[in-house]
Design a protein that fits this description.
Strand content: 15-25%
Number of strands: 33
Family: Belongs to the peptidase M1 family.
CATH superfamily of the domain at 19-305: tricorn interacting facor f3 domain
Distance between the termini: 12 Å
Largest sheet: 8 strands, mixed
Bound molecules: arginine, zinc ion
Cofactor: Zn(2+)
EC number: 3.4.11.2
Protein name: Aminopeptidase N
Pfam family, one: Peptidase_M1
């Protein structure tokens, strides 16, 4: 490891209340072409709960300190000290105003944290610790302050100059435009935002449940104004949904969203002024796929919901990040489920947990939902904090039931309004209103790793009893070897070959579905009055983020696939059956029986597709993804996994081409417009098309070519393009389509990204060479995170077959790119590193090559972000 590498660890156990509080924060930004001067006036008071330290220590990084004064007294160098991270002022009074001016260079800020420029406009990203790159401050979420912001620029330089809250005044003086903003709600610095640029604005209004009018504004580049209508509708739906579902009303007179091209994440919930990655706000049927539409709706909901779960009630420290993110993901997930297909949303979420979160949880970066330490907090915006955190809240909501859960969130929002609190405070509210003992449940926050449930059963014909035995264990994770049994809400039903059976436990009738509280290492549940051996439908609705194993017979899986009324379980039964076929292929075992069962059941579904939700069927047709399959092995062979998947796709296509083609043709007339049934029909039709292109026949190439040329929406056009590019036999046609697509869409950055992505995810040929070419394409820009995601992340995390090529060149390529990106944007570099941290999943040969790539990075000068991930994952 390079000797200069920083290794400072922050620990939850070291949490101390702040020594000072900031009652008021007044900021003035003078925007100049080459630099920005920030003057701050902070009204500081000693925190009576602090330890009465004599000195004030503020955070600040990459700042040029111009002036510093306390009240009227200008400070001299003996009054204070600066380090690269801090400003310490000696012997300060109990209460004072600190005046400070710093100079910063937004145009040189390539890390996209703090104040930076994106396509000419100024914007900010302060979460988690970016505000300290703007001015010296107590940059921690438990310091909440009232903010006033003045923005000054040359008159005419920017049409739009925004900050949080309400606009107090907008004047011109001596050739300068001066815009003054005031946010009446106290907030931590991570929710501060500033935007200045030449932007167009779409406006609308929303009347809240108590009758207040709110001005809604979406700011974008002028050329993108026609792509904001869907986001605006989504915002209004989200505002209504939060009133109806959580009783939460919007609080300011104005809610603004700004779209920026260069953004490290999806979006940011700054109070009253959300900043969005263009990819999460712009949408138009001609240029946006259905999946991207749903993502826009989900992210708009997510950021809006943060206004309560995050902003009004915020986190005490960053170890509590899941308090706001887990809760808000759960809220946005329910919002999406209410707006679209609930079953499909649940399947998508479960799929992310199983194929991404379980992998994180089984590897060197595993951490609890409430971590205990970090080097760089940006590395903890993870699928564990977000998605597993959301599953933990979902389990609480299910344990309490809708009425008590709502009472508990009401209590949480009213008790902690305006405060910075902990995950424990949240659980405490759940406990108080329900009088349930959640002490064992709390382990979900502190214990990392995925519980495995081993399930076995037996049937006693004489007693008419069916017994289910569930054993749980959680494998060790770094730093946590001793795992305890968790409280797992386990939803279950029993089927015969017609329908769900009535459940009787201890003489009590439970209806046809029940939730078992699994709390011990081993538990046996006895179902009574069962007249024949039933088929268990397990973990219904994915009721807990756990792995289960139960030895299903083929016939049982077929029955569940056809009969189960829980969408997740139907899909999961299909995944199980597909997995059985695939694992036997991978092991070189005979799998004729499994194959026959699978083909037969898919045939039945396709033949009767009109009888079921087309979107659900489309999900059911996709094979278990490669990362998930890899996670089922002690040491997975990525090449064998990819080959097995392709082989099975070829086979399904070959054996069911009549049904697939028929399905494709029948759905033709149902795919117009943006309605839910039209989107569902498109998803099924395009799933059929993708299979058909596994057959090397000219008529299928023509089908795709025709769909590509005639499509009146991006979903169909892009699906056809993908089908062509992914089919090795369609290379010539695919090249033409790619050229036409670029020609048609080169002016739309987000569509160009899709063009990059389809090429980077092609499963055959020398893709690494293609990827290298794309990096020097005129439309590529290594400073733009969306482009990095479209090429490099697409290749490394969505092209399993190619990234894991046995030469190891994919791994080396990624390491080289990361070393380069880390010089400019450590957060992006660190995120792109994730696939290499999964080396432990793979056969020794692959693992060694992956580790070698990670080790090559240790020879470099690394950011704290990348250093943390590299050092932990090599451990
Ligand atoms: N709080 C944002 C969200 O809604 C994520 C922003 C995090 N940004 C970062 N650079 N770590 O999920
Ligand atoms: Zn969030």
């Amino acid at each position: 490891m390079s000797p200069t590498a920083p290794t400072i660890v922050t620990r939850l156990a070291d949490y101390r209340v702040p020594e000072f509080l900031i009652e008021k924060t007044q900021l003035t930004f003078e925007l100049h072409e080459a630099h920005t001067d920030v003057s701050s006036q902070l009204t500081l008071v000693r925190n009576p709960q602090g330890s009465q330290a004599a000195h004030l220590e503020l955070h600040g990084e990459q700042l040029e300190l111009l002036t510093l004064a306390i009240d009227d007294r200008v400070l001299t160098s003996k009054d204070y000290r600066t380090t690269p991270q801090n400003l310490t002022i000696y012997n300060v009074p109990e209460r004072f105003v600190l005046h400070c001016t710093t100079r910063i260079y937004p145009e040189k800020n390539t890390a996209l944290e703090g104040l930076y420029r994106s396509s000419g406009m100024y914007c900010t990203q302060c979460e988690a610790e970016g505000f300290r790159k703007i001015t010296y401050y107590l940059d921690r979420p438990d310091v909440m302050s009232e903010f006033e912001t003045v923005i000054i620029a040359d008159e005419g330089a920017f049409s739009t100059m925004l900050s949080n809250g309400n606009c107090v005044s907008d004047t011109v003086k001596d050739g300068k435009r001066i815009v003054h903003w005031h946010d009446p709600f106290k907030k931590p610095s991570y929710l501060f935002a500033l935007v200045a640029g030449n932007l167009a604005c779409l406006e609308d209004h929303f009347t809240t449940q108590s009758g207040r009018q709110v001005l809604l504004q979406i700011y974008t580049a002028a050329k993108d104004q026609d792509k904001c209508h869907f986001a605006m509708q989504s915002l209004k739906k989200a505002m209504r949904w939060d009133e109806q579902t959580y009783g939460r009303e919007y609080d300011l007179d104005r809610f603004m969203i700004v779209a920026v091209d260069d953004f490290n994440m999806g979006a940011m919930e700054n109070k009253g002024l959300n900043v969005f990655n263009t990819s999460c706000v712009l949408a138009h049927p001609a240029s946006t796929t259905d999946a991207a539409f749903r993502r826009v709706e989900g992210v708009i909901g997510h950021e809006y919901f943060h206004n309560w779960s995050g902003n009004r009630v915020t986190c005490r420290d960053w170890f509590q990040l899941s308090l706001k993110e887990g809760l808000t993901v759960f809220r946005d997930s329910e919002f999406s489920a209410d707006m679209n297909s609930r079953a499909v949303k649940r399947i998508e979420d479960a799929n992310v947990i199983r194929s991404v979160q379980f992998v994180e949880d089984a590897g060197p970066m595993a951490h609890p939902v409430r971590p205990e330490s970090y080097m760089e907090i940006s590395n903890f915006y993870t699928v564990t904090i977000y998605e597993k955190g959301a599953e933990v809240v979902r389990m609480l909501a299910n344990i309490l039931g809708p009425t008590l859960y709502r009472q508990a969130t009401d209590l949480y929002f009213s008790r902690f309004d305006g405060q910075a609190v902990t995950c424990d405070d949240f659980v405490q509210c759940m406990e108080e209103v329900s009088s349930k003992d959640l002490s064992q449940f709390r382990l979900w926050y502190s214990q990392a790793g995925t519980p495995h449930l081993q399930i076995s059963d037996s049937y006693d014909a004489a007693r008419q009893q069916y017994s289910l035995t569930i054993r749980q264990y959680t494998p060790a994770t770094p730093g946590q070897t001793d795992k305890k049994a968790l409280h797992i809400p386990f939803k279950i039903a029993l089927y015969d070959n017609q329908a769900a059976l009535p459940l009787v436990i201890n003489g009590q009738n439970q209806g046809t579905e029940t939730v078992l509280d699994i709390c011990q290492d081993e538990q046996t549940i006895v179902f009574e009055q069962v007249t024949e051996p039933p088929i268990p439908s397990l973990l219904r609705g994915f009721s807990a983020p756990v792995k289960i194993s139960y030895d299903y017979q083929l016939l049982q899986l077929q029955q569940l696939i056809l009969l189960d009324n829980d969408g997740f379980c139907r899909w999961d039964a299909m995944q199980n059956l597909m997995r059985m076929v695939l694992s036997k292929t991978i092991d070189g075992a005979n799998n004729h029986a499994e194959q026959a069962a699978l083909i037969a059941v898919i045939k039945q579904l396709l033949t009767n597709h009109a009888m079921m939700d087309a979107a659900l069927l489309a999900c059911m047709l996709s094979l278990p993804n490669s990362p998930y399959l890899a996670s089922l092995y002690e040491k997975a062979d990525p090449v064998a996994i990819s080959q097995a998947r392709t082989q099975l796709q070829d086979q399904i296509a070959a054996e069911l081409q009549t049904e697939l083609l028929n399905c494709y043709q029948v759905l033709q007339d149902q795919t117009h417009g943006l309605t839910a049934p039209a989107m569902a029909a498109r998803s099924l039709r395009n799933a059929a098309l993708a299979y058909l292109l596994h057959i090397d026949e000219v008529r299928y190439r023509e089908l795709a070519q025709q769909q590509f040329a005639q499509a009146n929406n991006m979903t169909d056009q892009y699906a056809a393009l993908c089908a062509l590019v992914y089919a090795e036999h369609a290379e010539a046609t695919a090249q033409e389509a790619l050229a036409a697509f670029y020609q048609q869409w080169q002016h739309e950055a987000l569509v160009v990204n899709m063009w990059f992505q389809v090429q980077a995810t092609r499963p055959w040929g020398d893709v690494l060479q293609t990827v290298r070419k794309l990096l020097s394409h005129e439309a590529f820009d290594a400073r733009n995170p969306n482009k990095l995601r479209a090429v490099i992340a697409a290749f490394a995390s969505r092209n399993f077959a190619q990234f894991h090529d046995k030469s190891g060149q994919g791994y080396q390529f990624l390491a080289e790119q990361i070393a380069d990106i880390d010089q400019r944007n450590p957060q992006m570099a660190s995120r792109l590193l994730t696939p290499l941290t999964h080396w432990h999943q793979f056969t020794d040969a692959h693992a060694a090559l992956m580790r070698a790539a990670l080790e090559s990075l240790t020879q470099r000068e690394l950011s704290k972000d990348v250093y943390e991930v590299v050092s932990k994952s090599l451990h």
